[in-house]
Amino acid sequence: MIKLAIASALVAGSITAAHAEYPERPINMIVAYSAGGGTDIAARTLAPFIEKYLGDDASIVVLNRPGAGGEIGFTELAQSKPDGYTIGFINTPNILTIPIQRKARYSLESFTPIANVVDDPGAFSVLPSSGIKTFDDLIAYAKENPGKLTYGSTGIGSDDHLSALEFERMTGVQLKHVPFPGNADVRTATLGGHIMMASMNISETIADVHEGALHALGQMSNERWDGATEVPTFKEEGYDVIMGSMRGIAAPAGVPEDVVAKLEEALKAAVADPEFQTKAKEQHLALSYMNAAAYKAELESLDATFRELWETTPWVQE
């Protein structure tokens, strides 16, 4: 019996030691959108600082898994082994709206939220040569040319798509939706003149606005984001459209609590790091940190809101 007790203690000790050594190998960070978009930029800017605060020569590999409005990447994350070696960005509203609008291989319960990093207001932007300078111009063109004003988004049920639907409902115009794998693709299509308008987040628009390559009509926030103070809000222009994308880190459901705690601690320190704050500003990241508990509560609240919206105003017509 004494030998058995000693053996049990040794096994328990080895398990504790294994957890204490996390991470022992590289961590994959899944980004459910294409390279060069806002989520990808956030991931690649943040990853070295998570490595720094995880310590023990931690290594994070960013993997782009674009497609289906984020569903491909979200599904891969949800179905990964819950050992802490696969984490990823999850984006609202897509992470919530996809399982509402169609049968998906994941749900909100498939994830362990760790921390939110970004809360990025939506925006409408056009080429300066388009002749559209104001919302009045946009509405006039759309009414004179029903269904001909094309706009790009990151997919059906995305914040970009839902905000455009709300704008259509509010103004009585008819726009033509063109979905893309990620905001980088929306930007390219807009700059190339393949679509007339980009519906994408303000942080992903503002660099082109500053360079004169795009003209932002408005941002979908209660107040102007401090990284784009020259761009009016939709509310200021008379259109009460509030929409954006929260981008945070999650792991598959079932990850050990001590691993989650270590990741949460590292993320908190990473986001607060002055060097990261500087780099985030340079990359136009709209930072909005939430710890695991607050982030989980916010996701659950949003999920309930979108489910209620779907019951009254479905954004996909059968």
TrEMBL record:
Coiled coil: none annotated. Residues 1-20 form the signal peptide. Belongs to the UPF0065 (bug) family. It comes from the Bacteria. It comes from Nitratireductor aquimarinus. Keywords: Signal. Pfam families: TctC. This is Tripartite tricarboxylate transporter substrate binding protein. SUPFAM superfamilies: Periplasmic binding protein-like II. CDD domains: PBP2_Bug_TTT.
